[in-house]
Every structure is written in structure tokens, then in C-alpha cells.
Amino acid sequence: MILLDENGAATYEVLKGINPEIEVLVSTGYGTDENVQQILNDRQNGLIQKPSKFKQFTSKAETILSVN
Questions:
Q1: How many CA atoms lie within 13 A of 51 on its CB side?
Q2: DSSP label at residue 42
Q3: Domain-embedded: residue 16
Q4: Is residue 32 included in any domain, yes or no?
């Protein structure tokens, strides 16, 4: 959610402008603030807390991608 020049919520909005059907997996080491919650409430997006194991990441990504 924290990037060098932007934040994850703003980046998500740009991506949604390009592809309104986009699904994302938010990866954060922080709690779920209102920006994260807004992304999670929109479509079939998911959250994985850092640190995470690769198996957790791939499992969550497969879940998001298999919904459609």
C-alpha cells in the first residue's frame, strides 16, 4: 500500500480506469486502513499480510483468479 511516488489506493484507481474488471491482491505489512478496506470491498480483491509464505501468496492469487 505504500509506494515511492504514490500509494496503493491511488495506483488501484489508475488500474481500475484502465481495466474496470481488474482484480488485485493487496500485500501489506500494516493493518487494514480505510484505503485497504475500500479496495477489498470492490470486486473480488484479496489481502495478504506481510510477511507471507509463497504458498499463501499463490493460494490467495489462485482464489482471486478463479472467481471469474
A1: 1
A2: S
A3: yes
A4: yes
Global pTM reads 0.69
Residue with the three cell numbers 470492490 = 42
Scanning the structure block, which residue is given the C-alpha cell 495506483?
11
With 0-12 / 13-18 / 19 or more C-beta atoms within 10 angstroms meaning exposed / middle / buried, residue 24 is buried
pLDDT at 3: 64
Instruction: Please report the pLDDT score of residue 59 as a whole number.
Output: 92
Total domains in the chain come to: 1
3 in a structural domain: no
